[in-house]
Amino acid sequence: xxxxxxxxxxxxxxxxxxxxxxxxxxxxxxxxxxxxxxxxxxxxxxxxxxxxxxxxxxxxxxxxxxxxxxxxxxxxxxxxxxxxxxxxxxxxxxxxxxxxxxxxxxxxxxxxxxxxxxxxxxxxxxxxxxxxxxxxxxxxxxxxxxxxxxxxxxxxxxxxxxxxxxxxxxxxxxxxxxxxxxxxxxxxxxxxxxxxxxxxxxxxxxxxxxxxxxxxxxxxxxxxxxxxxxxxxxxxxxxxxxx
Length: 243
Known about the structure:
There is one protein chain. By secondary structure, the protein is α+β, with helices and mostly antiparallel strands. It has 2 domains: about 10-170, no CATH class; about 190-235, no CATH class. The protein contains 4 helices and 15 strands. It has helices at about 20, 195-200, 210-215, 225-235, and strands spanning about 10, 15, 35-45, 45-50, 60, 70-75, 80-85, 105, 110-120, 120-125, 140-145, 150, 150-155, 160, 170. Strands 3-4-6-7-9-10-13-14 form an 8-stranded antiparallel barrel. A two-stranded antiparallel sheet has the order 1-2. α2 (about 195-200) packs across α3 (about 210-215). The radius of gyration is 18 Å and the shape is globular. It starts with 7 loop residues before the first strand and ends in a 6-residue tail after the last helix.
């Protein structure tokens, strides 16, 4: 049974943790890689949540592995939502089986899962497909085009949190995402992208989500022979339009 942690405090403008459950986590953090402009999600019951905040001492961060989040999002009406410490205890992903190993994961194709924790609202579920009936079936996705989030997270005490309400959404900051077919992120699609593409094709579950999405040419959630043909056409003709 997941125990409810009581570990998040805000003092003198910084995020501080009490260590017994979560340990010492990211008191000195890298800068958030959420877009400083496109940073808002919306809850009908709770208002706006800010995924970037000040971008340094707080804000959400996708770890370099591309597998998990760390850090916080801030909601004026809810307080802090904790996304994880960035260091899963049992492999590349948070198990979400115990409070000390709780957080939000990024799976193949940019599909999110796991839980965020809010001191004032409890748990927020980023994948109700696996845990609820059709009425609560939703999952957050991060992929092309634009490497922005879409879909809904669910909190028992706040209802749905919408990461793309049309006009406003949560997206990744400049320099984080990759364009379709440009796997080495050098701004051009050429022979240097072939080996990274092959690596993703042979082992898609091991690829960071941005490389997976750059290889998933038809945006169907897998990297297969159809994507090989489209990637080849992309290199030869420049037809690399994101669906």
